Every structure is written in structure tokens, then in C-alpha cells.
Amino acid sequence: MTAALESVSVLLADDHLAVAHGIQKFLKGQVNSIDVVRTGEDLLAAVQTSPPDMVLLDIGMPGISGIEALEQLRARGYQMPVVMLTMYDELSLVKRAFSFGATGYVVKQACGEELLSAMCCAMRGERFVSPTLHWGEPTYLRESIAFTDKQLAVLRLAAEALTAKQIAVELGISSRTAESHKFQMMQALGVSTTVALIAAARKKGFI
Description:
Structural class: alpha/beta
Shape: elongated
Oligomer: single chain
Radius of gyration: 18 Å
Largest sheet: 6 strands, parallel
Strand content: 5-15%
Number of helices: 10
């Protein structure tokens, strides 16, 4: 069992039962639990009843599509990692999925160890895109990133382990503004936790 996933509860949404059951069987010994639903509507209902630690979400489902379900999850305030599973490899779909808060994008043909890698990245707050797409990191994630002086100030204080409230006091801003700056930087660097933000910022030379 992968240590990073051994305590993780997973909800898989896929209308192709043969594929869903294959993934379920593969992950059964890797995660704490994995349940399967067949539609976006069922996914939203299941999350409302018992939120999982992670969602695996097929894009091409009938009714509410996977991306629409993802959009609704985020609109309702659910922040668990979501890894998209798909037969489609268009860059526009990858970009759209990430714009709505996806954490990973895995083509079904590559499911297996690659899916485990995507899930482990997701639990660390890092993005993952299937290398089989031959893009490496998508172009839009490689675009030049520039932060404002205020954002960089927030980043430096966060790297010193100050809380949003402490950062707000130091910079004379509200806690909400401090959190907003952090969120914007997370989005720009493709991460979803403060720890991952600081690591990515150091790697790119911002701090």
C-alpha cells in the first residue's frame, strides 16, 4: 500500500462500469476505501452525504459532465483534491479542468502506476498531468509568472511560518486580503497548500 494514500477515502465517478470496477480493483489495496458512482448527479449527492478525501472524476459522463460536476463541487465549497480521468487529450480540456480547480489530469489509457502518482501528487497539493500527453507541463502552466510586491511580502512571511492573521498585522492588511494573496499565488503556481506554495516559490526563485 502507498503510504501517502493508505488513509485516503476515494469516490470514483465513471459511467463505464467495466473501467470503474477495474480502477476500483486496482486501488483497493492502495487506499483506505473507494466507492463508485455513475453520474455527476450521484457524485454531488454522495459528496454531500459523506465527503471523501479525494475524488476521481470521469470527464465524459452523461447529464452533468465531469467538468460541470467539478465546477459545482468547488462552488459548494468542497476543496478535496479532484483528479480527472478521461479519454480526451486536448489541451483546452486540461486548461478548463484546472481553471475549475482540478488537481490532476490522467488519460485512462495510462491508468495504473500513473494514477497512483497523480493521486500522491494531489494529496501533496501538487498538480499532475499525464506524461503520455507529450506536453510535459502544459504550455499555460509554463507562462511567465509575476507577483506584486504585496504578494511577495505575503509569500516571504508565509515562508517564515507566520499565519494569515500574523501576516495581516505585519503588513497592515486584513486576514482575508492575506489569504486572497496566497490563493492567487497558489493558482499561479499550480498548488493548493501553503507548504506546496512555499516549495514551488523557492524552486522558481521567488524566495
